[in-house]
Amino acid sequence: MKKVVLGFSGGVDSAVCAHLLKKQGFEMQCLYLDNAGEEARNDAVRTAEFLNLPLEIRDVHSMLEDLVCKPFTEAYLRGETPNPCIICNPSLKFKMLLEYADEIGAEHIATGHYARAENGVLYKGKPSNDQSYMLCRLKREQLDRLILPLGEFEKAHTRALAEEIELPVAKKPDSMEICFIPDKDYIGWLGKRAELPEKGNFVFHGEVIGTHEGIHRYTVGQRRPGLFNERKLYISRIDAEKNEIELALWEELFKTEVFARGFNWLCDKPEKEIRASVRVRHTKWENPDCTAAIEGDLVKIICDEPVRAPARGQSAVLYEGDRVLGGGFII
Protein backbone atom coordinates (compact mmCIF):
# COMPACT_ATOMS: atom_id res chain seq x y z
CA MET A 1 0.00 0.00 0.00
CA LYS A 2 1.42 3.36 -1.02
CA LYS A 3 1.82 6.05 1.62
CA VAL A 4 0.87 9.69 1.20
CA VAL A 5 1.24 12.80 3.37
CA LEU A 6 -1.79 15.06 3.06
CA GLY A 7 -1.61 18.74 3.88
CA PHE A 8 -4.56 18.93 6.25
CA SER A 9 -6.28 22.10 7.43
CA GLY A 10 -9.50 20.57 8.71
CA GLY A 11 -11.53 22.45 6.10
CA VAL A 12 -13.85 20.91 3.56
CA ASP A 13 -11.25 20.61 0.78
CA SER A 14 -8.61 18.72 2.74
CA ALA A 15 -11.25 16.56 4.44
CA VAL A 16 -12.74 15.49 1.09
CA CYS A 17 -9.19 14.86 -0.19
CA ALA A 18 -8.64 12.50 2.73
CA HIS A 19 -11.86 10.65 1.90
CA LEU A 20 -10.87 10.29 -1.76
CA LEU A 21 -7.34 9.12 -0.98
CA LYS A 22 -8.72 6.52 1.42
CA LYS A 23 -11.03 5.20 -1.30
CA GLN A 24 -8.02 4.95 -3.63
CA GLY A 25 -6.29 2.70 -1.10
CA PHE A 26 -3.56 5.01 0.17
CA GLU A 27 -2.08 4.69 3.62
CA MET A 28 -2.40 8.26 4.83
CA GLN A 29 -0.66 10.55 7.28
CA CYS A 30 -2.05 14.06 7.69
CA LEU A 31 0.15 17.07 8.43
CA TYR A 32 -1.26 20.26 9.93
CA LEU A 33 1.01 23.28 9.61
CA ASP A 34 0.13 25.41 12.62
CA ASN A 35 0.37 29.04 11.59
CA ALA A 36 -2.91 30.36 12.96
CA GLY A 37 -4.62 30.08 16.33
CA GLU A 38 -6.09 27.51 18.69
CA GLU A 39 -9.52 27.45 17.03
CA ALA A 40 -8.11 26.53 13.60
CA ARG A 41 -5.86 23.88 15.13
CA ASN A 42 -8.78 22.36 17.07
CA ASP A 43 -10.87 22.21 13.88
CA ALA A 44 -8.14 20.17 12.20
CA VAL A 45 -7.88 17.82 15.19
CA ARG A 46 -11.66 17.26 15.33
CA THR A 47 -11.94 16.58 11.60
CA ALA A 48 -9.00 14.15 11.66
CA GLU A 49 -10.59 12.31 14.57
CA PHE A 50 -13.92 12.12 12.74
CA LEU A 51 -12.17 10.57 9.73
CA ASN A 52 -10.03 8.34 11.96
CA LEU A 53 -6.82 9.72 10.50
CA PRO A 54 -3.40 10.14 12.11
CA LEU A 55 -2.50 13.84 12.39
CA GLU A 56 0.93 15.37 12.89
CA ILE A 57 1.02 19.02 13.99
CA ARG A 58 4.06 21.16 13.26
CA ASP A 59 4.46 24.77 14.41
CA VAL A 60 5.57 26.88 11.45
CA HIS A 61 5.13 30.40 12.89
CA SER A 62 8.87 31.10 12.81
CA MET A 63 9.31 29.76 9.26
CA LEU A 64 6.27 31.72 8.09
CA GLU A 65 7.74 34.91 9.52
CA ASP A 66 11.12 34.46 7.82
CA LEU A 67 9.98 33.05 4.47
CA VAL A 68 6.65 34.77 3.87
CA CYS A 69 5.69 37.55 6.28
CA LYS A 70 8.97 39.46 6.09
CA PRO A 71 9.18 39.39 2.26
CA PHE A 72 5.47 40.29 2.06
CA THR A 73 6.03 43.35 4.26
CA GLU A 74 9.13 44.47 2.36
CA ALA A 75 7.38 44.09 -1.00
CA TYR A 76 4.40 46.19 0.04
CA LEU A 77 6.70 48.96 1.25
CA ARG A 78 8.45 48.89 -2.15
CA GLY A 79 5.12 49.60 -3.81
CA GLU A 80 4.65 46.02 -5.05
CA THR A 81 1.60 43.76 -4.88
CA PRO A 82 2.88 40.46 -3.47
CA ASN A 83 0.96 37.20 -3.47
CA PRO A 84 1.89 35.38 -0.24
CA CYS A 85 0.47 32.00 -1.28
CA ILE A 86 2.72 31.83 -4.34
CA ILE A 87 5.73 32.53 -2.11
CA CYS A 88 4.62 30.16 0.66
CA ASN A 89 3.76 27.09 -1.39
CA PRO A 90 7.25 26.03 -2.54
CA SER A 91 9.31 27.48 0.32
CA LEU A 92 7.18 26.39 3.27
CA LYS A 93 4.02 24.34 2.67
CA PHE A 94 5.23 21.86 0.07
CA LYS A 95 8.74 21.86 1.51
CA MET A 96 7.37 20.71 4.89
CA LEU A 97 5.10 18.12 3.26
CA LEU A 98 8.00 16.63 1.30
CA GLU A 99 10.36 16.62 4.28
CA TYR A 100 7.77 14.84 6.43
CA ALA A 101 7.07 12.36 3.63
CA ASP A 102 10.78 11.52 3.52
CA GLU A 103 10.82 11.12 7.32
CA ILE A 104 8.11 8.46 7.28
CA GLY A 105 8.92 6.87 3.93
CA ALA A 106 5.87 8.14 2.04
CA GLU A 107 6.05 8.14 -1.75
CA HIS A 108 3.58 10.97 -2.30
CA ILE A 109 2.31 14.28 -0.95
CA ALA A 110 -1.18 15.70 -1.51
CA THR A 111 -3.14 18.92 -1.01
CA GLY A 112 -6.64 20.23 -1.65
CA HIS A 113 -5.71 22.62 -4.45
CA TYR A 114 -8.03 22.78 -7.45
CA ALA A 115 -5.53 21.87 -10.15
CA ARG A 116 -4.24 18.65 -11.72
CA ALA A 117 -0.86 17.02 -11.24
CA GLU A 118 -0.15 14.13 -13.59
CA ASN A 119 3.24 12.43 -13.98
CA GLY A 120 5.12 15.48 -12.75
CA VAL A 121 3.18 17.93 -14.94
CA LEU A 122 0.86 20.64 -13.59
CA TYR A 123 -2.44 21.46 -15.31
CA LYS A 124 -5.36 23.80 -14.73
CA GLY A 125 -8.33 22.68 -12.70
CA LYS A 126 -11.95 23.44 -13.58
CA PRO A 127 -12.34 27.05 -14.79
CA SER A 128 -14.71 28.04 -11.97
CA ASN A 129 -12.13 27.39 -9.25
CA ASP A 130 -8.77 26.77 -10.92
CA GLN A 131 -5.82 27.32 -8.54
CA SER A 132 -2.94 26.34 -10.84
CA TYR A 133 -1.75 29.97 -10.84
CA MET A 134 -0.94 29.65 -7.12
CA LEU A 135 1.28 26.63 -7.74
CA CYS A 136 3.48 28.14 -10.46
CA ARG A 137 6.61 28.23 -8.30
CA LEU A 138 6.56 24.62 -7.10
CA LYS A 139 9.87 22.83 -7.45
CA ARG A 140 10.08 19.97 -9.92
CA GLU A 141 10.85 17.49 -7.14
CA GLN A 142 7.71 18.61 -5.28
CA LEU A 143 5.55 18.31 -8.37
CA ASP A 144 6.95 14.86 -9.23
CA ARG A 145 5.45 13.42 -6.01
CA LEU A 146 2.27 15.49 -5.85
CA ILE A 147 -1.31 14.20 -5.95
CA LEU A 148 -4.20 16.67 -6.27
CA PRO A 149 -7.40 14.69 -5.64
CA LEU A 150 -9.69 17.67 -6.37
CA GLY A 151 -8.24 18.35 -9.81
CA GLU A 152 -11.40 17.30 -11.65
CA PHE A 153 -13.79 18.80 -9.08
CA GLU A 154 -15.72 22.02 -8.89
CA LYS A 155 -16.25 23.46 -5.41
CA ALA A 156 -19.97 22.66 -5.48
CA HIS A 157 -19.10 19.00 -6.17
CA THR A 158 -16.69 18.97 -3.22
CA ARG A 159 -19.32 20.37 -0.85
CA ALA A 160 -21.96 17.93 -2.12
CA LEU A 161 -19.61 15.01 -1.46
CA ALA A 162 -18.79 16.39 2.00
CA GLU A 163 -22.49 16.46 2.87
CA GLU A 164 -23.02 13.00 1.41
CA ILE A 165 -20.39 11.51 3.72
CA GLU A 166 -21.64 13.71 6.59
CA LEU A 167 -18.43 15.57 7.21
CA PRO A 168 -18.83 18.00 10.13
CA VAL A 169 -17.10 20.72 8.07
CA ALA A 170 -19.36 20.32 5.02
CA LYS A 171 -20.82 23.80 5.46
CA LYS A 172 -17.71 25.49 6.85
CA PRO A 173 -17.16 28.77 4.92
CA ASP A 174 -14.17 29.09 2.61
CA SER A 175 -11.23 31.01 4.04
CA MET A 176 -10.72 34.02 1.73
CA GLU A 177 -8.33 36.09 3.83
CA ILE A 178 -4.54 35.88 4.07
CA CYS A 179 -3.92 33.15 6.65
CA PHE A 180 -1.56 35.28 8.75
CA ILE A 181 -3.92 38.29 8.65
CA PRO A 182 -7.21 36.60 9.63
CA ASP A 183 -9.00 39.86 10.47
CA LYS A 184 -8.26 41.20 6.94
CA ASP A 185 -6.73 44.39 8.41
CA TYR A 186 -3.46 44.26 6.49
CA ILE A 187 -2.86 47.99 7.05
CA GLY A 188 -2.95 47.44 10.82
CA TRP A 189 -0.81 44.32 10.45
CA LEU A 190 1.83 46.23 8.46
CA GLY A 191 1.74 49.08 10.97
CA LYS A 192 2.74 46.73 13.79
CA ARG A 193 5.74 45.49 11.84
CA ALA A 194 7.23 48.51 10.06
CA GLU A 195 7.25 52.27 9.81
CA LEU A 196 4.59 53.02 7.24
CA PRO A 197 5.07 55.44 4.34
CA GLU A 198 3.81 58.99 4.78
CA LYS A 199 1.31 60.85 2.64
CA GLY A 200 2.43 61.74 -0.87
CA ASN A 201 1.24 62.98 -4.23
CA PHE A 202 -1.20 61.59 -6.75
CA VAL A 203 0.16 62.42 -10.22
CA PHE A 204 -1.89 62.31 -13.42
CA HIS A 205 -0.13 62.90 -16.76
CA GLY A 206 2.70 64.70 -14.93
CA GLU A 207 0.41 66.96 -12.88
CA VAL A 208 -0.04 66.69 -9.10
CA ILE A 209 -3.81 66.45 -8.57
CA GLY A 210 -4.10 65.35 -4.93
CA THR A 211 -2.64 63.57 -1.92
CA HIS A 212 -2.61 59.87 -1.11
CA GLU A 213 -2.58 58.38 2.39
CA GLY A 214 0.50 56.19 1.91
CA ILE A 215 1.58 53.91 -0.95
CA HIS A 216 0.92 50.77 1.15
CA ARG A 217 -2.83 51.46 0.91
CA TYR A 218 -2.96 51.12 -2.88
CA THR A 219 -2.32 48.61 -5.62
CA VAL A 220 -2.00 48.89 -9.39
CA GLY A 221 -5.37 48.70 -11.11
CA GLN A 222 -7.29 50.01 -8.09
CA ARG A 223 -9.65 52.93 -8.67
CA ARG A 224 -8.90 56.25 -6.97
CA PRO A 225 -12.01 57.47 -5.11
CA GLY A 226 -13.90 60.32 -6.71
CA LEU A 227 -13.65 61.85 -10.17
CA PHE A 228 -11.16 64.13 -11.90
CA ASN A 229 -12.63 66.30 -14.62
CA GLU A 230 -15.63 63.95 -14.49
CA ARG A 231 -13.43 60.92 -15.29
CA LYS A 232 -12.57 57.90 -13.16
CA LEU A 233 -8.83 57.46 -12.54
CA TYR A 234 -6.91 54.32 -11.60
CA ILE A 235 -3.56 53.47 -10.02
CA SER A 236 -1.12 52.77 -12.86
CA ARG A 237 2.26 52.89 -11.06
CA ILE A 238 3.57 53.20 -7.51
CA ASP A 239 6.93 54.94 -7.08
CA ALA A 240 8.17 54.14 -3.58
CA GLU A 241 11.34 56.23 -3.90
CA LYS A 242 9.41 59.41 -4.75
CA ASN A 243 6.43 58.40 -2.60
CA GLU A 244 4.21 59.10 -5.61
CA ILE A 245 1.28 57.27 -7.13
CA GLU A 246 0.76 57.69 -10.85
CA LEU A 247 -2.81 57.66 -12.13
CA ALA A 248 -4.26 56.76 -15.50
CA LEU A 249 -7.51 56.48 -17.37
CA TRP A 250 -9.07 53.01 -17.62
CA GLU A 251 -7.93 52.49 -21.21
CA GLU A 252 -4.34 53.43 -20.26
CA LEU A 253 -4.08 50.51 -17.79
CA PHE A 254 -3.85 47.90 -20.55
CA LYS A 255 -0.41 46.64 -21.57
CA THR A 256 0.82 44.22 -24.20
CA GLU A 257 4.39 43.89 -22.87
CA VAL A 258 5.21 42.25 -19.52
CA PHE A 259 8.61 41.38 -18.04
CA ALA A 260 9.04 38.75 -15.32
CA ARG A 261 12.07 38.01 -13.13
CA GLY A 262 13.02 34.87 -11.22
CA PHE A 263 11.11 32.66 -13.64
CA ASN A 264 10.43 29.14 -12.39
CA TRP A 265 10.12 26.69 -15.28
CA LEU A 266 7.98 23.58 -14.78
CA CYS A 267 8.99 22.32 -18.21
CA ASP A 268 12.30 22.13 -20.00
CA LYS A 269 13.67 25.67 -20.20
CA PRO A 270 12.97 26.87 -23.75
CA GLU A 271 15.97 27.74 -25.92
CA LYS A 272 13.97 30.01 -28.23
CA GLU A 273 10.78 32.03 -28.06
CA ILE A 274 7.59 30.08 -27.46
CA ARG A 275 3.89 30.57 -28.03
CA ALA A 276 1.77 30.28 -24.91
CA SER A 277 -1.00 32.02 -23.00
CA VAL A 278 -0.42 34.17 -19.92
CA ARG A 279 -2.21 35.03 -16.69
CA VAL A 280 -0.99 38.10 -14.77
CA ARG A 281 -3.25 37.75 -11.72
CA HIS A 282 -5.44 35.14 -10.08
CA THR A 283 -8.47 35.79 -12.29
CA LYS A 284 -10.39 33.47 -14.55
CA TRP A 285 -11.10 35.72 -17.53
CA GLU A 286 -7.72 37.18 -18.54
CA ASN A 287 -5.60 34.56 -20.29
CA PRO A 288 -4.51 35.96 -23.69
CA ASP A 289 -2.21 34.20 -26.12
CA CYS A 290 1.33 35.52 -26.13
CA THR A 291 4.91 35.08 -27.28
CA ALA A 292 7.51 34.57 -24.54
CA ALA A 293 11.29 34.63 -24.75
CA ILE A 294 14.15 34.56 -22.26
CA GLU A 295 16.18 37.78 -22.28
CA GLY A 296 19.06 37.56 -19.83
CA ASP A 297 17.63 37.14 -16.32
CA LEU A 298 14.12 38.04 -17.47
CA VAL A 299 11.30 36.54 -19.50
CA LYS A 300 9.75 38.98 -21.97
CA ILE A 301 6.08 38.34 -22.69
CA ILE A 302 4.31 40.01 -25.61
CA CYS A 303 0.54 39.55 -25.39
CA ASP A 304 -1.67 39.25 -28.46
CA GLU A 305 -4.37 41.15 -26.56
CA PRO A 306 -3.54 43.69 -23.82
CA VAL A 307 -3.77 42.63 -20.17
CA ARG A 308 -5.18 44.95 -17.54
CA ALA A 309 -2.79 46.62 -15.13
CA PRO A 310 0.02 44.10 -14.67
CA ALA A 311 1.31 44.86 -11.17
CA ARG A 312 4.89 44.64 -9.89
CA GLY A 313 5.20 41.73 -7.49
CA GLN A 314 2.34 39.71 -8.92
CA SER A 315 3.16 36.65 -11.02
CA ALA A 316 3.02 36.18 -14.77
CA VAL A 317 2.21 32.52 -15.38
CA LEU A 318 2.58 30.87 -18.79
CA TYR A 319 0.33 28.06 -20.05
CA GLU A 320 0.39 25.72 -23.02
CA GLY A 321 -3.26 24.83 -23.26
CA ASP A 322 -4.08 23.63 -19.73
CA ARG A 323 -0.44 22.86 -18.86
CA VAL A 324 1.45 25.23 -16.58
CA LEU A 325 4.84 26.04 -18.08
CA GLY A 326 6.04 28.19 -15.17
CA GLY A 327 5.83 31.63 -13.64
CA GLY A 328 7.89 34.63 -12.59
CA PHE A 329 7.45 37.92 -10.74
CA ILE A 330 6.32 40.93 -12.76
CA ILE A 331 8.71 43.87 -12.72
Account of the protein in words:
- Helices cover 25% and strands 31% of the residues.
- It is globular.
- It has a six-stranded antiparallel barrel. Strands 3-2-1-4-7 form a five-stranded parallel beta sheet, with helices on both faces. Strands 9-8-11-10 form a four-stranded mixed beta sheet, with no helix packed on it.
- A hairpin with a 4-residue loop joins β10 (234-239) and β11.
- By secondary structure, it is of the alpha/beta class.
- The mean pLDDT is 93.
- The chain has seven helices and 17 strands.
Task: Produce a short descriptive summary.
Helices cover 25% and strands 31% of the residues.
Give keywords.
single chain, 331 residues, alpha/beta, six-stranded antiparallel β-barrel, 7 helices, 17 strands
List segments where confidence is low: pLDDT < 50 over at least 5 consecutive residues: none
N- and C-termini, Cα separation: 47 Å
Output the number of helix runs.
7
Strand content: 25-35%
Count of distinct strands = 17
Q: Report the average pLDDT across residues.
A: 93
Strand numbers in spatial order across the main sheet: 12-15-14-13-16-17
In quaternary terms, these chains amount to: single chain
Topology:
Elements: E1 3-7, H1 12-23, E2 27-34, H2 38-50, E3 55-59, H3 61-77, H4 84-104, E4 108-110, E5 115-118, E6 121-124, H5 140-144, E7 146-147, H6 155-164, H7 186-191, E8 200-204, E9 207-212, E10 234-239, E11 244-248, E12 254-265, E13 274-279, E14 289-295, E15 298-308, E16 315-320, E17 323-330
